[in-house]
Specification:
amino-acid biosynthesis; 10 strands; EC 5.3.1.24; two-stranded antiparallel sheet; RibuloseP-bd_barrel; TIM Barrel; 20% strand; alpha/beta; 225 residues; binds the ligand O=C(O)c1ccccc1N[C@@H]1O[C@H](COP(=O)(O)O)[C@@H](O)[C@H]1O; Aldolase_TIM
Length: 225
C-alpha cells in the first residue's frame, strides 16, 4: 500500500503548489481562528479550488458546531473533515451522517492509556489521526510541533487506516515510520519557516524522506520484527 502523506495548515497558493509538486496526497486547511494557520472561508475556498483534482482537501476543525460545518462544507467542498477537538464518538457519527463525507478523528496521545479510546472512535470514524496530547495551557489542540512516544503504537491494530502526526519533520519521519509502520503521515510545523509560513523546500524534503522510508519498509503486510 502506498504511504499517504498529508501536509496541513496551508495558507497560500505557493504552499498548495509546493505540496502538489512534491507529490503529497492531501492538504489540510485549518478553520480555527486561534491557530496561526487559520484561513477564512473565502480564502479557504480559493485554496481548496486550487488543490481539487490534484490533492485531497481536508477541512480541519476544532469542536465546530453544525452551522460552522455547514459553512465550511459549502465553501471548501472538502474530501475529508478532520475533527481535532474533544468531539465524542457520538458527535463523530453525527457529523459523518449529516455531511456524508469521510471523517478523520484526531486523538491526543501521551500514554498507553490514551489508546483505550481507539475502539469507540474506530467504530464511527473513517480514519484515526494520532497526535501528541497538547499541554493543558495550549491555545490549540494541535499544530504544536510536539511528538509523542511512537513506540506506543507498536502492535496497534485500530481496525482502520490511521495517520501519524505530531512533531514530524524531514529529519525524523523515516524513524517514525520505521517504528510505527504507519500507513499515513501528517505534518504541519515541521515544514514551516515560522508558525503558519510553509517552506516549499521542507515540504519537498519531507515527502522525499517519507516516500523513501516507506519504500524501504512498507506499512502493510510488513512482517513484524
Ligand atoms: O495546525 C494547527 O494550528 C492546528 C490547530 C488546531 C488543531 C490542529 C492543528 N494542527 C494539526 O496538528 C497535528 C500536528 O501538527 P504538527 O505537525 O505537530 O505541527 C497535525 O494533524 C496538524 O494538522
Amino acid at each position: 500500500m502506498t504511504l499517504v502523506i498529508k501536509i496541513c495548515g496551508l495558507k497560500t497558493s505557493e504552499a498548495v503548489e509546493a505540496a502538489a509538486a512534491a507529490g503529497a496526497d492531501m492538504v489540510g486547511l485549518v478553520v480555527f481562528p486561534p491557530s496561526p494557520r487559520h484561513v477564512d472561508l473565502a480564502h479557504g475556498r480559493s485554496l481548496a479550488a486550487l488543490a481539487t483534482g490534484r490533492l485531497q482537501v481536508v477541512a480541519l476543525t476544532v469542536d465546530a458546531d453544525d452551522a460552522l460545518l455547514d459553512d465550511i462544507v459549502a465553501a471548501l467542498d472538502p474530501d475529508w473533515l478532520q475533527l481535532h477537538g474533544k468531539e465524542t464518538p457520538e458527535r463523530v457519527a453525527a457529523v459523518k451522517a449529516r455531511f456524508g463525507r469521510p471523517v478523520m478523528k484526531a486523538l491526543g496521545i501521551a500514554a498507553a492509556a490514551d489508546l483505550a479510546r481507539v475502539p469507540a472512535y474506530a467504530a464511527v470514524a473513517d480514519r484515526i489521526l494520532f497526535d501528541a496530547r497538547p499541554p493543558k495551557d495550549a491555545t490549540r489542540p494541535g499544530g504544536l510541533g510536539r511528538a509523542f512516544d511512537w513506540d506506543l503504537l507498536d502492535d496497534l491494530d485500530p481496525g482502520l487506516g490511521y495517520m501519524l502526526s505530531g512533531g514530524l519533520d524531514p529529519a525524523n519521519v523515516a524513524e517514525a515510520l520505521r517504528i510505527t509502520r504507519a500507513p499515513a503521515v501528517d505534518v504541519s510545523s515541521g515544514v514551516e519557516r515560522a508558525p503558519g509560513d510553509k517552506d516549499p523546500q521542507k515540504i519537498a524534503e519531507f515527502v522525499r524522506a517519507a516516500r523513501a522510508a516507506a519504500a524501504a519498509a512498507p506499512a502493510v503486510a510488513r512482517p513484524r520484527a
